[in-house]
Amino acid sequence: MDPRLFHIFGPIWINSYGLMISLGLLVTALLSYHSSLRKRLVSGDFYLNTIFFATIVGFIGGRIMYLFTNWQSFAANPIEVLYPWEGGFSLLGSFVCVPLFLWWYLSRNQVPILPFFDFVALYIPLLQAIARIGCHLAGCCYGISISKQTWYSIIYNHPDSLAPLHVFLHPTQLYSSALSFIIFCILQISALVLLKTPGKITALFFALEGFARFIIDFWRGDRCGLLTLGGAQSTYSDFVSISSYQLLALILSLGGIIGFFILKKNRDTK
């Protein structure tokens, strides 16, 4: 697993993580662009413009979230905050910022917000599933250590890897990738029924993705502890600490669940 694939010039490289994000974006953009649902909602030009602006916002949001939760990494040399080629990105940051941008952008252009959100939510998990493979290659978002080799454990040996070297680890990136792909399949199947009520697919997406991130983080070796249940100091493997990412993921998941049942109740009372 090599986090760097091709050298361009100076400090600029084609990184495996960035390549997989680009591949995920390309695949989901092509699939969604040719969707009959997209054709009923917006024009092709408007959709491509939306993808372009949302990608920029997603990159900025992902970078800001990473800096916010890993500020200690830049304390010695703060100028590295402006060096995105050195790595450092959070998909959860994009997950938060892009919907806020879309809400404003769609309102400004008088596009139905909830139907468009439902449409986008059908494809975002596929993008995340592909992007997480890039995390696996780069060594970021790595898992906690395993005492001995197992059939599912991984080990990083490349010196540029972001994961600890020469130890057996949980492949949390692949766990996340697999769960995102399962969520993608669930949403595609659920769309046959849930698209009849605008907002339900979006609510289900937030509920499932937030819950998946909350669970997977227990096996993450790079998380930042926020709360320690019971007031005792423990290792991550004891499953007692809650990270800042988990807290945010839990809020998103609960918000999705509440939103889903509010929409269901409103439909049932009509």
Give a brief description.
The protein is built from nine helices and four strands, in the order ββααααααααββα. It is mainly alpha-helical.
Please, could you describe this protein's structure?
The protein is globular, with a radius of gyration of 19 Å. Helices cover about 60% and strands about 5% of the residues. It contains nine helices and four strands; from the N terminus they run ββααααααααββα. The chain has one domain (about 5-270). It has helices spanning about 15-35, 35-40, 45-70, 90-110, 115-120, 125-140, 170-195, 200-215, 245-270, and strands at about 5-10, 10-15, 225-230, 240-245. The chain has about 270 residues and is mainly alpha-helical. The N and C termini lie far apart (about 55 Å). A hairpin with a 2-residue loop joins β1 and β2. A two-stranded antiparallel sheet has the order 1-2. Strands 3-4 form a two-stranded antiparallel ribbon.
